[in-house]
Amino acid sequence: MVDQFVGTWKMISSENFDDYMKALGVGFATRQVGNRTKPNFVMSVDDQGMICMKSQSAFKTTEVKFKLNEPFDETTADDRKTRTVVSLDNGKLIQKQSWDGKETNIEREISDGKLVAKCTMGDVVAVRTYVKE
Question: Which of 27, 75, 87, 108 is most buried by its number of CB atoms within 10 A?
Answer without folding.
Answer: 108
